[in-house]
UniProtKB/TrEMBL annotation:
Pro residues: bias regions: 34-44
Low complexity composition-biased segments: 49-59, 113-123, 411-433
Any GO BP annotation: mitotic cell cycle
Species of provenance: Sphagnurus paluster
Gene Ontology CC terms, in alphabetical order: microtubule
Composition-biased stretches (Basic and acidic residues): 877-890, 913-924
Residues in Kinesin motor domain copies: 181-553
Protein name, per record: Kinesin-like protein
GO molecular function: ATP binding; microtubule binding; microtubule motor activity
Binding locations of ATP: G261, Q262, T263, A264, S265, G266, K267, T268
Region (Disordered): 26-137, 391-448, 584-606, 626-645, 877-924
This protein's UniProt keywords: ATP-binding, Coiled coil, Microtubule, Motor protein, Nucleotide-binding
Pfam families: Kinesin
Segments forming a coiled coil: 743-773
Length: 924
């Protein structure tokens, strides 16, 4: 078995000294109280019923081997080295994890096949509630914090030995707890078979054996981390990856240590360990007490809570199982500030024994079950938290003051019913109350440091198992681990690219709970465990990629310190008085002294006086600002600033400035109140009295909606955005073509309409012209009539309807011109043979007497130049045959003198004449 451990280049432990502690607190220079009689060790009172089966086992089984033997009798499958395939049912799985590690390693993922394990993993307490104490007298709400403080005198020597690997301390050179990066270590579980990974501890690197690489062409990627850990012993692991973080927590920084990895890769073994190899949690607890023992100047209040996140519900592992099941823990806050878990039980611990008891109870309630890969697989994420509050130990005088109202703080007392009366819900150092109950108060000018140490054993990622319930749990586990991965990814990205992208903390309970730590206000150490088996290469690779990403997350842990404002102000005031006294003394002596002093000494003297003045002004300012030092924004429970009357010499200008600042502060607080009220109004309308389950449901629903919306928004661009854009472009193009076609058609029609209008205009003009011609003709005819020329025309008895003239062949003007050329007289001389064809071509024919012809032509308007007249001379005898022939050729024109009543000519002239004839037949 490979027992190599790389300690990397870790620095020496931050050897903690009283001197260092004193320098970290600028306000307190009070020496510790050296020797008060040491009180009797604290033993929490517990009802008989609180003694669980495990503790009874422990008490009866005096040696580890006895215990193993006894457990082996009850749960042989857990202890035997041949138990791999068949093991105890679920009911036995929630036993405390005090089992002995099998001598042969359990099978790796993918290899085993074992009978299904029935049922949901049970909680021991749920099955036998009598084994769990219904209440604990060390519950923080039942004790006076001042009565349960721990200091170097109260720590048992046996509680501190052997946790530190001295050899490591000598070689380590770097303290990862002080870095602003996450410390990331890889622990490779030992294997009996081939290992797919080649660790190089000297360079803290690790790479895949090329034999197991998917593509042999690419060179195997080497991963570098803060430490590469192998082997079974947990002691060097603690020294390397956890110790500096535990110390940071003791010094006032939040610290988180968690194990991440595939199922059965050794997370629980690393965190909890077993009897022979205690893991990080028990060792950290031992180290906490060792730290206290080495720090005589401070006193501590330690509170523990233990919870698990199972199927996205948080269960209090320290609460009685019946009530824990009914009241799942809710997370409140978390928006940039601390989170509040409620109802969560916190138990005060004053000794290692007390912590062990708490751990034992919590672990007994954890859900574990047999899976295809791990016979005791953690089915939940478990979080063990220790809240560490500390302050400098008070002087004797201070203690006496304290004793008036409180139990002495330098000793321990057994709290019991009626013994202590916890005060009202008190101001919480750091701003928020994590759970109801009193807290350590800053007192006598001594500030209180508060930090939280979180030790987290995550459930392992896994593939679907052969069991339905396990598969369901696995889904929840994988989902929350995926969310953790994406949160880490976003944080790393934000840090690398200086972005502030939204981090989806709220997508799972785990990330929501870790939000304050992951946001940066904690020192974080992650141990990524991998299974070296070749069949687990892809899972190990994904663990390594997670490790790589988390390495990039930027941290900036800050100490949280709450000062006692009143005492501080009092101290400043005293100092001011003192300084003023010294100043006035110097001023009084100044005239005498200055005579004796050299020029240089006088300069020094005036400089010293100036310094004194400056210091007085500084202190005056501090008095003002310190009134708001411990009043965190938005904390409804914080104490109002002390109404201290300050009597100091301040110029009116300075006072005005202070006043202005105060006003600005008030204004900003008023704005804050308004926005908070608005946020409150925007909340869904659920009465405060609504049942918790209803609130849960609502919260879950909203969470789901938010998640869905996020997915939709995220997925829109990737999945729908592009196709939809393409469709829109197609449709737009199609419609554009249609519109263009329509425009073209319309233009065509417009052109056609214009053409039509032109034609109509033309026609209209023609009509007008014709109308004018007609009128002229009519005028001519009437003139003609008035001259009495028409009277000579023989009336047509039958014809009253006139037909329009037909055009002559060759044009009337041609014929007319011809005739003109022949002379007017020739018109009257009708030559039958010559004129007959031209007669047929004439549009106007009228029968008139030869005498009138000349007159008519004279009267004819100029425009009629193309009108021809067929003049028929009655004196000329036309043979009857020719007459008929002529009639046929002529268009409806018959000889006017025809007695048979021939139809009238269709010439307008003829028509008018006809009309005249019709109107007044036989009249003059
Ligand atoms: N470094 C190690 N040395 C010896 N045994 C180990 C080591 N790591 C793990 N094991 C053993 O491997 C088995 C599985 O380990 P463990 O239960 O810690 O895995 P896990 O990662 O917590 O699994 P899950 O996520 O399913 O809870 C245990 O029997 C444990 O004793």
């Amino acid at each position: 078995m490979d027992n190599r451990v790389s300690h990397g280049s870790l620095g020496p432990a931050s050897a903690f000294t009283a001197f260092q502690l004193q320098t970290t607190n600028p306000f307190t220079m009070v020496p510790s109280t050296p020797s008060k009689p040491r009180p009797a060790p604290f033993t929490p009172k517990r009802p008989l019923s609180s003694i669980s089966s495990a503790s009874s086992i422990s008490s009866n089984a005096t040696t580890p081997s006895d215990l193993s033997a006894r457990l082996a009798r009850t749960t042989p499958s857990l202890l035997s080295s041949t138990h791999k395939k068949y093991k105890a049912p679920i009911s036995s799985e929630s036993r405390p994890r005090t089992f002995t590690r099998p001598t042969t390693l359990p099978p790796v993922p993918g290899t085993p096949s074992r009978p299904r394990t029935p049922g949901t993993p049970g909680r021991k307490g749920a099955e036998s509630p009598s084994l769990m104490p219904a209440t604990s007298e060390m519950d923080v709400s039942n004790v006076d914090p001042e009565a349960v403080l721990v200091n170097h005198e109260s720590v048992e020597p046996g509680d501190v030995s052997g946790e530190i690997d001295e050899a490591w301390l000598r070689t380590a050179t770097q303290d990862h707890g002080k870095e602003d990066k996450v410390m990331v270590s890889i622990r490779i579980r030992p294997t009996d078979g081939h290992s797919a990974w080649i660790p190089t501890p000297s360079t803290n690197s690790l790479k895949l054996d090329p034999t197991y690489a998917k593509t042999s062409a690419a060179p195997a990627q080497a991963f570098n981390f803060d430490a590469i850990l192998t082997g079974t012993p947990n002691k060097p692991i603690y020294s390397t990856v956890a110790r500096s973080h535990v110390h940071a927590a003791m010094e006032g920084f939040n610290a988180v240590i968690f194990a991440y990895g595939q199922t059965a890769s050794g997370k629980t073994f690393t965190l909890s360990g077993d009897d022979s190899e205690p893991g990080i949690i028990p060792r950290a607890m031992r180290d906490v007490f060792a730290f206290i023992r080495r720090t005589p100047t401070r006193e501590y209040l330690l509170r523990c809570s233990y919870l698990e996140i199972y199927n996205e519900a948080i269960h209090d592992l320290l609460a009685p199982p019946s009530s824990a099941a009914k009241n799942p823990v809710q997370i409140q806050g978390g928006n940039g500030g601390e989170i509040v878990l409620t109802p969560l039980r916190e138990e005060v611990v004053t000794s290692l024994k007390g912590v062990k008891e708490v751990l034992r109870r919590g672990e007994g309630n954890r859900r574990t079950a047999c899976t295809d890969w791990n016979e005791r697989s953690s089915r939940s994420h478990s979080v063990f938290r220790m809240v560490i509050e500390s302050r400098e130990r008070g002087s004797a005088a201070g203690d006496e003051e304290d004793e008036d109202a409180h139990t002495p703080s330098n000793g321990r007392h057994t709290p019991g019913p009626g013994r202590t009366t916890p005060g009202p819900r008190s101001h919480t150092p750091g701003g928020r109350s994590q759970t109801p109950g009193p807290r350590l108060q800053s007192r006598g000018g001594r500030s209180v440091q508060t930090s939280v140490l979180s030790l987290i054993d995550l459930a392992g990622s896994e593939k679907a198992t052969s069991d339905k319930d396990r598969t369901r749990e696995g889904k929840y586990i994988n989902t929350s681990l995926l969310t953790l991965g994406s949160v880490i990814g976003t944080l790393a990205d934000n840090a690398a690219k200086h972005k502030t992208d939204h981090v989806p903390y709220r997508n799972s309970k785990l990330t929501r709970m870790l939000q304050p730590s992951l946001s940066g206000n904690a020192r974080i150490s992650v141990i990524c465990t991998i299974n070296p088996d070749p069949s687990a290469v892809s899972e190990s690779m994904s663990t390594l990629l997670f490790a790589k990403r988390i390495k990039n997350v930027q941290l900036n842990a800050q100490k949280k310190e709450v000062v006692d404002t009143d005492a501080l102000i009092e101290r400043y005031r005293k100092e001011i008085e003192d300084l003023k006294k010294r100043l006035s003394e110097r001023e009084a002596e100044a005239p005498v002294r200055s005579r004796r002093l050299s020029a240089r000494e006088q300069v020094d003297e005036s400089k010293a006086m100036k310094d004194l003045n400056t210091r007085i002004q500084q202190l005056t300012k501090l008095i003002l600002t310190s009134q708001t030092v411990d009043e965190p924004k938005g904390d409804s429970e914080s104490r109002p600033a002390s109404p201290v009357k300050i009597d100091f010499d301040m110029s009116p200008y300075q006072l005005q400035q202070e006043l202005l600042n105060a006003r600005l502060q008030v204004e900003s607080q008023a704005t804050q109140i308004l926005s908070l009220e608005a946020a409150l109004d925007a909340r869904p309308p659920l009465p405060a009295s609504a049942p918790e389950s209803e609130k849960d449901r609502l919260i879950a629903e909203q969470g789901k909606t938010i998640r869905e919306l996020e997915i939709v928004v995220r997925g829109y661009e990737e999945n729908l955005g592009e196709p939809l854009r393409a469709v829109r472009e197609d449709v737009e193009k199609e419609w554009k073509d249609k519109v263009l076609e329509e425009v073209r058609r319309r233009e065509e029609k417009e052109r056609w309409a214009e053409e039509l209008v032109k034609q109509l205009e033309k026609e209209k003009k023609m009509r007008v012209t014709l109308e004018e011609e007609r009128r002229a003709l009519a005028a001519f005819v009437s003139k003609f009539d008035s001259l009495g020329l028409g009277l000579t025309m023989p009336p047509s008895p039958t014809t009253s309807k006139l037909r329009p003239a037909r055009p002559t062949i060759g044009g009337a003007s041609a014929a007319f011109a011809e005739r003109r050329a022949a002379g007017i007289s020739s018109v009257s001389s009708y030559d039958h043979n010559d004129t007959l064809p031209s007669l047929a071509e004439s549009p106007l024919r009228m029968d008139m007497k030869g005498n009138n012809i000349k007159l008519m032509l004279e009267q004819m308007p100029e425009e009629w130049s193309d009108v021809s007249f067929d003049v028929h001379d009655e004196n000329v005898e036309v043979p009857e045959k020719d007459k008929e022939k002529e009639k046929e050729k002529m268009f409806g024109v018959v000889g006017l003198g025809d007695a048979t009543g021939r139809k009238g000519a269709q010439s307008p002239v003829r028509m008018v004449l006809g009309d005249k004839e019709n109107r007044a037949p036989g009249k003059p």
